[in-house]
Amino acid sequence: MTELPTDVMTIREMCEAYDVTPRTLRFYEAKELLTPIRVGTRRLFTRRDRARLALILRGKRFGFSLEDIRQTLDLYDREGGASAQRQKAYDLGVKRLAEMEAQRAELDLAIADLKAELADAEAKGLVPRRAA
């Protein structure tokens, strides 16, 4: 019988450590982003799975697509190291930052326009003044 690694975590431990739900872990497993060891019906997550989950969660927080995250994670396995993976993550980060800054600029403009509209309505007495 093959001996299991000693540094594995159960699904419950993963949920507690990373503040995710079992459904989230099963979803990432179904998408082949995580590959826990299966022992009967139990899932045991290795140090590799934990590192991948941390990168997945960071990528999602930054707004990367799951496909971008998958491609980045797969580079580590295909290329046998972190160099290609780091470059891909950097390139995606530069692109995403530009997108986020453009979104922020659009949002800043929309906020300014809405504030002006509200102030105009208040100034014309069309609505009661807002409390500051």
Please, could you describe this protein's structure?
- With 132 residues, this protein is mostly helical.
- It has a domain at 1-61: Multidrug-efflux Transporter Regulator, Chain: A, Domain 2 (Orthogonal Bundle).
- The protein has five helices and three strands.
- It has helices at 11-18, 22-30, 47-61, 66-79, 83-123, and strands at residues 9-10, 37-39, 42-45.
- The protein has a three-stranded antiparallel β-sheet.
- Strand 2 and strand 3 form a beta hairpin.
- Helix 3 runs antiparallel to helix 4 and helix 4 packs antiparallel against helix 5 (83-123).
- The mean pLDDT is 90.
Question: What's the topology here?
Answer:
Blueprint: E1 9-10, H1 11-18, H2 22-30, E2 37-39, E3 42-45, H3 47-61, H4 66-79, H5 83-123
Antiparallel strand pairs: 1-3, 2-3
Helix pairs in contact: 3-4, 4-5
Please write the CATH class name of the domain at 1-61: Mainly Alpha
Order of helices and strands: EHHEEHHH
Give the N-terminus to C-terminus distance in angstroms: 70 Å
Q: What is the gyration radius calculated from CA atoms?
A: 23 Å
Basic shape: elongated
Estimated structural class? mainly alpha
Largest sheet composition = 3 strands, antiparallel
Q: Count of helical segments?
A: 5
Strand order of the largest sheet: 1-3-2
Short description:
Helices cover 66% and strands 7% of the residues.
Provide keyphrases for this structure.
single chain; 132 residues; mainly alpha; Multidrug-efflux Transporter Regulator, Chain: A, Domain 2; three-stranded antiparallel β-sheet; 3 strands; 66% helix; elongated
